[in-house]
């Protein structure tokens, strides 16, 4: 009888453990993996955490192979390296260049490549302006796994549709990041993530019958990842620009009607011209 009670208790405990673990996900990183999400939602942090995790595993495996090859006095394989298009802190990495993308030079075999804001490299519109470049990009993405000897490339961007069609043609699934958080836990961060399927129309595969947050999984990663990069690394482009502040304040009885539309379209920007002229004439009178 005691044994039966113990078995039942173990089964109940295992059931709750399984139910608890089902809420977590360990992203399965393939040769070309894409992370998407809204602006400043934590795409770089999550995708970089996955990149570093994969690279540690790849580099450890390389060390094991080298150990046995030295024992048998065989030629050592190339060391897999970490490549990135943004600066990283306290991480040994190598810079990505356009020569790599155009296949004029190659990555070390088995390397891990990290591309932040991939649409800045090549967006969906560049294929119309430079069709010859599209062919080169298609070769790079299609043959990446072969030419790097099973290397891994991890991208992130706001939208899958914003990426160049050459990359989208090589992507059948991607990871959508709903939100990230570092609260309450001292050494780890977590994000809510969902694996999505991708098709050419982008609408027939991903359907939602409930709140999308209820369909996400939790991914845990090291909080120290956020210290390894600058989340505003491109702010240097505007940091030195002059600051323009136009102070405004309306009292209780002041009108809250608009006096202009800030727009690049002249038909909108000029809508208030006639009204403003009439107001100026009324003031003069």
Walkthrough of the structure:
Helix content is 34%, strand content 16%. It is an alpha/beta fold. The radius of gyration is 26 Å and the shape is extended. The N and C termini lie far apart (102 Å).
Task: Jot down its keywords.
285 residues, alpha/beta, eight-stranded mixed beta sheet, 8 strands
Gist of the model:
The chain is an alpha/beta fold and 285 residues long. Helices cover 34% and strands 16% of the residues. The N and C termini lie far apart (102 Å).
Strand order of the largest sheet: 3-2-4-5-1-6-7-8
Low-confidence stretches: none
Classify the beta-strand content into a percent band: 15-25%
Structural class of the helices, strands and pairings?
Answer: alpha/beta
Number of helices: 9
* Helix percentage range: 25-40%
Order of helices and strands: HEHEEHEHHHEHEEEHH
Radius of gyration: 26 Å
Mean pLDDT rating:
87
The outline comes out as extended
**Main sheet characteristics:** 8 strands, mixed
Secondary structure layout plus pairing:
Elements: H1 2-21, E1 32-37, H2 43-71, E2 82-84, E3 94-95, H3 98-101, E4 112-115, H4 118-121, H5 126-129, H6 131-147, E5 152-157, H7 165-168, E6 173-181, E7 188-197, E8 217-222, H8 266-269, H9 273-284
Parallel strand pairs: 1-5, 1-6, 2-3, 2-4, 4-5
Antiparallel strand pairs: 6-7, 7-8
